[in-house]
Amino acid sequence: MRVDVVSIFPEYFTPLDLSLIGRARANGVLRLAVHDLRGWTHDVHRTVDDTPYGGGPGMVMRPEPWGAALDALAPAEPTPDGPTPDGPTLPRLLVPSPAGEPFTQAMAHELAGESHLLFACGRYEGIDQRVLDHAATRMRVTEVSLGDYVLFGGEVAVLVILEAVTRLLPGVLGNAGSLDEESHAHGLLEAPMYTKPAAWRGHEVPEVLRSGDHGRIARWRRDEALARTATRRPDMFAALDPASLDKRDRAALDRAGFQAPPGHVAK
Ligand code: 6GU
Q1: How far is the CA of 100 from the centre of ligand 1 (A)?
Q2: What is the rounded distance in angstroms from the CA atom of residue 78 to the CA atom of residue 265?
Q3: Which residue CA neighbors atom 2 of ligand 1 most closely?
Q4: How far is CA 267 from CA 32, 79, 198, 248, 260, in A?
Q5: Bridge partners of 102?
Q6: How far is residue 65's CA from residue 6's CA, in Å, rounded to a whole number?
Q7: Which of 1, 28, 33 is nearest to 16 (CA)?
Q8: What is the position in ligand 1's atom list of the atom closest to the CA of 157?
C-alpha cells in the first residue's frame, strides 16, 4: 500500500519509523511518504492560513498550497471508465476532521483494501472547503473523525488511522489469527486476558482458563465478551444481530442481568 501524508508538521510522523509499522515500511508492505505543505507555498513567509470569510475566531487553511499538493500527489487523469488497469490510479483522499464520518474498525478494513491513501492534515479551523469540493470532482474524498472531541489538527488522527489500517495488511501482524478474536472483530468487545503467574497480589486467574478445557474456555470468553459489551457499550450491544445470539448466549446475558435484543433465537 502506498500512503502519502501532507502536513505542516512532518515531525509528527517520526513514530511511523518504529515497531511493526516501521518494519512494514522497511520490508516494502507500506510505502509511506510524509510531505511538508509549506513546500507548496511561494511567499517568503510560506503562508498556509488566513482569516475566515464571514468572520469568527481562528484561521482557515488557504486553498492554493493544498491545490498544488494534491495536484502533485494525485496526478492521474480520470478517464470515462475510471483509471486504466495498468495506469496510475487516483488515491483515496482522507481528511481528518471532527466533522467527519466516524472512524471504525469497518472503515479500517475498507481502507486496508485500497492501494493508495492520501491524507490531508488540516490545522486551525480546517481547510478551505473548496479544496475538498474540487478534489471530489476527480477522486474519492472522505472526511473522517476519531470521535466526539476536538484535536488541534489531523496529525494524531492520521497516526491512529494508519496504525489501525496497516496492522490489517497481509504480512504485517505475525499472528493473523489474533485479528479474528480481537475487540470489534464481531461487534463484541474482547474478553479479559491473563498470563502467568496464576495468582498475583491476591488476584487469581479464573479457574476455567487454567482448566485446559477448550470448550469451556471458549464459552467463558464468549460470556465475558457479551457481558462486557452490554455493560460498557450499550450502543454496540443494541446493534448486535439477534440471529447471532444463540440460546446459551441469551442465558449468559440473562445471568449477567441483561436483556438480549429481541429476535429469532438461533439453535
Ligand atoms: Cl480526525 N481531527 C481533528 N482535528 N479533531 C478531531 C478528529 C480529527 N477526530 C476527533 N476530533
Answers
A1: 8
A2: 49
A3: 97
A4: 48, 51, 36, 9, 15
A5: 145
A6: 11
A7: 33
A8: 1
Backbone dihedral angles phi then psi of residue 13, each to the nearest 5 degrees: -100, 10
Q: Are strands 199-200 and 203-204 parallel, antiparallel or unpaired?
A: antiparallel
CA nearest to 109, candidates 60, 169, 66, 51: 169
End-to-end alpha-carbon separation of the chain, Å? 42
What pTM was estimated for this model as a whole?
A: 0.91
Instruction: pLDDT tens for the chain, 267 residues: list them.
Output: 999 999 999 999 999 988 889 999 999 999 999 999 999 999 999 999 999 999 999 999 999 999 999 999 998 675 566 555 555 689 999 999 999 999 999 999 999 999 999 999 998 799 999 999 999 999 999 999 999 999 999 999 999 999 999 999 998 887 776 788 888 888 999 999 999 999 999 999 999 999 999 999 999 999 999 999 999 999 999 999 999 999 999 999 999 999 988 876 655
Atom nearest to 144 CA in ligand 1: 1
Who lines ligand 1 at CB under 6 A? 96-98, 100, 144-147, 149-151, 153-154, 157
* Cell representation of residue 66: 493544498
Please give the Cα distance from 16 to 14 (Å, whole number): 5
Closest CA relative to residue 159, chosen from 1, 14, 23, 27: 14
Distance 120 CA to ligand 1 centre (A): 12
